[in-house]
Amino acid sequence: MANIDISQELGVNEVMAAQSVLSRPAEEFGNDPSVEAVWAMKAFEHAEIYFNILCSVDPKALRLTKHDDLIYTKFREMFPDLDVQSINEDEMKSDQGKAKWRPFCEQFKEVVEDYSFGTLLRADVTMDYSEKNSILTSRIQFLAIEIARNREGHNNDIRSRFKPTKKDKK
């Protein structure tokens, strides 16, 4: 996984200022680049941590939330035929895709903390995160697809093909 260093674009003060206000409603920000950069950093950090966990444990035993059973059941009720091995971003984000995903996501508004938080999802389950293989989704979409991948055995060979990456301590 390539390292992304947003600190080259923003100074420490800008990153700290943006980080301190992330809990405020999104409508207050418009398109503030420093806030967007911090969101991108958080999404990348989450992806890196998740992939390292996948490389370290048996995915079938992995629980991502205390609501995994509910998320999986509702996901497969609404998307029984969705092939989670390969996600087509264009289909997912089309008007039809959004119309189908919106009710699924909204039912978890009060159940899953930060259900709409921007999260990176691997499009192709057989590959690592990369610019080409990453889709920005909501947290609940990420959870639903990754829980399905784990339970249905699609992440089983990750440990044999990839090794956890070690973070440099600075």
TrEMBL record:
Recorded coiled-coil stretches: none
InterPro entries, per the entry: PBDC1-like_dom_sf (IPR023139), PBDC1_metazoa/fungi (IPR008476), Polysacc_synth_dom (IPR021148)
Domain Polysaccharide biosynthesis: 35-158
Pfam family, one: PBDC1
UniProt cross-references to PANTHER family, sorted A to Z: PROTEIN PBDC1 (PTHR13410:SF9)
Name of the featured protein: DUF579
Organism: Nesidiocoris tenuis
